[in-house]
C-alpha cells in the first residue's frame, strides 16, 4: 500500500473519531466557541457532521479529492474557535494548557490542510511520489 493511501486512511479514522466526539462529548467544543457564533450547540453538531463526512470521504478513493477540499473548508471555518481558545484559555477550558502551546497549535491547521490535500493528490500528478 502506498504511503499516501495509508495517511489517507489514518486521516479518515482521525476525522471520523474527532467528529464523533462532537456528539459524545460536546462540552470542550462548546467552550472554545467564540461568543459571536450564533447557536453554538448547532455549530458544534454541524462541524461534527462535517468532520465525519470528510473522514468517510477520505477513506473512499473516488471521493478523496472532494473530501480533502471539504476538510480544508472546515479547517478554515473552525480556525476562529482555535484563535478564541488561544486568546481566552481559561474561558475555553484550556486553563491548564500552556498558552504557548495554544498559540503553537494554530499553525497546525496549515499542516492539517497540507496533509489532506497531499493525501488526495492524483497518482499521476507532479510531486506525487507517495512511496
Characterize the structure shown:
The protein has 131 residues and is mainly α. It has one domain (3-119). Helices cover 69% and strands 0% of the residues. The protein contains six helices and no strands. It has helices spanning 3-24, 27-31, 40-59, 64-87, 99-105, 108-119. Helix 1 packs antiparallel against helix 3. The longest helix is centred in the middle third of the chain and has 24 residues, at 64-87. The protein is globular. The model has no long low-confidence stretch (mean pLDDT 89).
Q: What's the quaternary structure here?
A: single chain
* Number of separate domains: 1
Summing up helix and strand content along with how strands pair, one would put the structural category as mainly alpha
Strand content: under 5%
* Residue-averaged pLDDT: 89
Helix content: 55-70%
Give a count of the beta strands, DSSP E runs of length 2 or more.
0
Give the count of helical stretches.
6
Brief descriptors of the model:
131 residues, mainly alpha, globular
Structural topology:
Layout: H1 3-24, H2 27-31, H3 40-59, H4 64-87, H5 99-105, H6 108-119
How would you briefly describe this protein structure?
With 131 residues, the chain is mainly alpha-helical.
